[in-house]
Each structure stands twice: as structure tokens, then as C-alpha cells.
Amino acid sequence: MKAIRVHEFGESDVMKLEEVPDLIAGEGQVVVQVSAAGVNPVDTYIRAGTYAVKPDLPFTPGMDGAGTVSSIGSGVDNVSVGDRVYVAGTLSGAYAEQALCSAGQVHALPDNISFSQGAGIFVAYATAYRGLFQRAKGVAGETVLVHGASGGVGTAAVQLARAAGLTVIGTAGSERGRGLVADQGAHHALDHHDPGYLQEIMDITNGVGVNVILEMLANENLGKDLPLLAHGGRVVVIGSRGNVEINPRDTMAKDASIMGMVLLIAPEEDLAGIHAGLYAGLANGSLNPVVGQEIAIGDASKAHEAVMAPGAYGKIVLAV
Ligand code: NAP
Are residues 115 and 11 in the same domain? Predict the structure, then answer.
């Protein structure tokens, strides 16, 4: 089978499409015939060797994918050969024709969701779900600012928040992105490059502020986020690419909280709740992953450049 292999950390051209041996499912394992693999910013940090956890070389990148179960090992009872699935991480890497997974990493894909869309479920939707519901404990009637709503996590967050009855303010840097954010259900789509947009958020909330902020670029925005919070407001730091200065006083008089999260350390019982919630939303149509770009797996380097470029539009997936 063919797989992207990385033999040394570096720029996107270290990813090469190579012929590698077929995978065999051991006890408690599943082999998925991958139809599409999802591309996430974290894949680029891992490929570059700048992520906190470095895989042993050589390796196949990718945590997201969707396809069909092609074989199962002994003791696997949650899926059968032929089932349509999405993966939540893999043991062998998702940028490949086959992915070896533990049984717990494989989840049913509703029939109404395509494989390309399925490749955009785990990292984006599980992060948005965990941030909004499990960390910030957002509830119907509250207002959420999805600060960076045009990309993978952001579009997922807008759909989840809208379906759950929150008032949704989303931001994007391009006009096309703002159109997408509005189409996903945001009540207000603002430009995070517009000098007046922070005041606009306060005006939308009649000066009260927002209850929850899901922050995709905390190094840019955390200092600006805190004055936007209502009393008891919560900021969830989802993405950050550097340092930032904040005024801690902005949290004090509001009983405000800044909370971090990393999806990959979420406890198993929390993940089980996330997957159940996502399945329900995907099956009933309130969640509908947006595939903005589909790129052939042999051009994975182009996909890594695209996912780090401005002007996000949903998910980028690799056609396998
Ligand atoms: P993505 O698809 O590349 O989207 C990036 C988003 O950030 C876009 O909406 C982009 O908007 C927005 N953005 C760019 N400049 C911004 C600014 N100045 N203010 C606010 N937003 C801005 O990436 P993603 O998959 O959604 O992930 C978003 C971030 O979360 C990444 O840093 C990723 O590494 C991180 N992440 C963390 C976890 C975790 O477990 N903590 C999980 C998944 C992702 P425009 O392009 O329209 O300007």
C-alpha cells in the first residue's frame, strides 16, 4: 500500500509518498481502508519537529481519516469488516491507503456523511465540543465568540453552538470566510482584522459582553478577549502560536476564567461522551463538516502549506 512517510523533520517537502507493507490487525486492532485523511495544523508542527511530542522517524502523519473497515483482530466487537468509519487518531498514521487503529479509535460514520467529511470530524469537532461544552460548560441562552470561526475547529464550533441554542458570534479574516461562518449558523460574522470589531462585539451584546470565547489564536487575542467577557465569562485557549501580554485585572471584577485544553489528553470517559454527541449531531444533520479543499495524497506538502495560510475555509482533506 501507499503511505506518506517522513524520514526527517523539516519543511513540507520532507513528506514522500512511498510503497510500504500492508498492515495486519493484531488483537484489539482494526485496519481501515482510508478514503480520505484530514489535515490539521498540528500535523505541520509534528512534521516540522516543533511539537512537544516527537514521533520516532520514519513515520506517517495524520490523526484524522475516514474509510471502510478492511480487517479486524481478535476481541474487536465494536465494528465489523465493511463498516463505514471515521478514526480518532491511529497507531500507524492516517496519510495512507491503510491505517492501523486500536478498536477504541474507530467510530461509526453516519450514512449521510461522506468519507471526505468524515476525515474532518475528530480533531475539529471533538476539540470544538470539548472546548464549548466540557471546558467552558456553555449552555443555551449564552453568547459565544468563536474567535477564528472559518477553519476546521471554528466551523465545527459554530454548528455545535448554534444547534445547542447559544447566540453565536464568529470571526474570519476574509469575506469568503465570513460568508461561510454565517452559512454555518453564526448570528454575527465579523472581521478579526477590522479595527472596530471588538467594539462591535460589545455593541451586539448591549455592553454586557460574551459568556464564552473559543480562542484559536491566543497569542494575538487573549489580551483583547478578557475585556469582552461578561460576568462569569470563560475563555478557552484552543490555539496559540507564541506569547501574549494580558492585564490580569480584566479577569478579577468579572470572576472570569481562562482555561486551556488539549484534545489529545482528554480522559476516555469524556471522549466517549464527545463521540456520542457528535454521532447524534452528524446523523440528525445539525453537524455537517465543511470540506473546503480536497488535495491528492501525493500533494500532501501543498496541503500543509494551505492549512497554515490565511483565508481558512473549513477543512482541507487528502483524497487517498
Ligand atoms: P485552521 O482550519 O487553519 O483555522 C485557523 C483559524 O484561525 C481560521 O478561522 C483563521 O481565520 C483564524 N485566525 C487567523 N488569524 C486570526 C486572528 N488574528 N484572530 C482570530 N482568528 C484568527 O485551524 P483549526 O484546525 O481550526 O485550528 C485552530 C487552532 O487551534 C490551531 O492553532 C490549531 O493548532 C489549534 N488546535 C488546538 C487543539 C487543542 O487540542 N488545543 C485542537 C485542534 C486545533 P482566517 O484564516 O479567516 O483569518
Answer: yes
